[in-house]
Amino acid sequence: MTRLLTRKDALNESRLEAAQEPAGAAAGEVLLRLDRFALTTNNITYAAFGEAMQYWQFFPTGQAGWGQMPVWGFADVVASGVPGIEAGERFYGYFPIASHVRMQPERVTPRGFYDASAHRRTLTSAYNQYTRVSQDAAYRRELEDYQMLYRPLFLTSFMLADFLADNGFFGATRLLFSSASSKTAYGTAFCLRGQAGLALHALTSPRHRGFVAGLGCYGAVSDYAALESIDTATPTLYVDFSGDEALRERVHRHLGDALVYDCFAGSAQNTGFLREAALPGPAPAFFFAPVQIRKRNADWGPEEVNRRFHAAQQQFIDHAREPAHGWLTLVREQGFAAARERIASLAEGRAEPREGYVVRLGG
């Protein structure tokens, strides 16, 4: 077994570790081999919030100061001691960056299973679910790279758009997005496109302005430096994907009474979570997708939630992968060394919004 360990206090530093493990699976256990996974700033966010949100606890290392960064990807069963799960089956889910991982499946159904390993029982169940690709209505083999890149992000986008709409946008008629070039941000805007009476305004860096304007998701695009030129007569909801505290303060002070809600959707930069700050207007509120998923499971039932999500995801991926739209260039890389280098570049902010990074461990 080979695994990649990352320093919790320096996310651009990782190291490889190898150990001998039994090749089989005990009763009640499955052994999976990770084939491929995506790397985005979302993975850096998991690590940045690793302590506050317990992300490091999904795949503990037993080594102080070192963690296994979670990623979304596909793995194949190489040995199974669990009825209903066979060697050779392929699953999509939340994995460590490692050649192999052992799990203790429970709630095994045709759709998949949940990992019931003791250390995961108190953690958010949405991350413990593994989907059998043969039973996934949204799965297509040729779209695996797109699914890994977009599904975890688009799930947040879809549920965030639903949360905001579910709350009547808190009375806002304009949404102001920071880090509008991020995949989760423009996924949210994609879900809300055409919403009657709602304007979508993007904030981005000069470097990314052309990309953001070309997406076609936003009605207006401004550089961060031009924030103070935005009118203050429109009830506005701030959708914060940057976590930049100085920017948040500028938004609050400039918009004043026009700011009706501040929704913090996560960030790779602000590793201090949401710190107390003396800001005018509404206190920033953290959005956590599993909370809205639970609400909609109760409102609509899980099958209907999945149906709506899969339909929206398919529309989004079909749009994003169309070369003429210029949204995505796949960057496919091979092996642990490539993963280590890519994590360092993402942690240091050296990612291009148009690029999607996929790492293959298998042959």
UniProtKB/TrEMBL annotation:
InterPro entries: DUF2855
Domain of life: Bacteria
Name of this chain's protein: DUF2855 family protein
Organism, scientific name: Cupriavidus malaysiensis
Lineage of source species: Bacteria, Pseudomonadati, Pseudomonadota, Betaproteobacteria, Burkholderiales
